[in-house]
Design goal:
One of its GO terms (cellular component) is cytosol. By secondary structure, the protein is α/β, with parallel strands linked by helices. The protein contains four helices and nine strands.
Length: 180
């Protein structure tokens, strides 16, 4: 049913699993003996974070933040609202933000600066998707699985008006769906 709204598949489920496996191996080596906190940015990061942690073979802690900047549209409003903050003190801790997509970069830039002010030992970013053409601020992920063109994508956690998150792949949404 949802497939009828998809123009094309950009990243298949199998490609996502393979990328998460490779990144998990890298993170296992990088964070061995450090017990980092992986901070998922709700809601979009959940499928990717769930897949990623299956492939990390060292101690990690999980936490989540709910941050809003889209407010139901297709473009970031640029206003960052922290709706749910993490539950623990991060002083001296290694932090890895896990994100579904970096588009404008405003949200992650703000969060990275906030966590640096909170005296984290390190703050890094892992993203499933990077859309550099959408960037409005200077920020780069430390770990990127896929770089994508400047198209409106949904699936695997990414939504349009809270829908399509449950697609098992990342696809380009047909323009007629969101231009109504």
């Amino acid at each position: 049913m949802l497939e009828k709204d998809i123009k094309k598949v950009l990243v298949s489920h199998d490609e996502i699993v393979e990328a998460a496996k490779k990144l998990g191996e890298t993170l296992t080596k990088e964070y061995q003996g450090k017990n980092p906190i992986f901070v998922g940015i709700l809601k979009g990061s959940v499928p990717f974070m769930a897949e990623l942690i299956n492939h990390v073979d060292t101690h990690i802690e999980l936490d989540f933040m709910l941050v809003s900047s889209y407010h139901g549209g297709t473009a970031s409003s640029g206003i960052i609202n922290i709706i749910k903050d993490i539950d623990q003190d991060i002083t001296g801790r290694d932090i890895l933000f896990v994100e579904d997509i970096i588009d404008t970069g405003k949200t992650l830039k703000s969060l990275k600066e906030l966590f640096e002010e909170r005296n984290a030992a390190s703050v890094k970013i892992a993203t499933l998707l990077d859309k550099p053409e959408g960037r409005l601020v200077e920020i780069e992920a430390d770990y990127t699985c896929f770089t994508i063109p400047n198209e409106f994508v949904v699936g695997y956690g990414l939504d349009y008006d809270e829908n399509y998150r449950n697609l098992p792949y990342v696809g380009v949404l047909k323009e007629e769906v969101y231009s109504k």
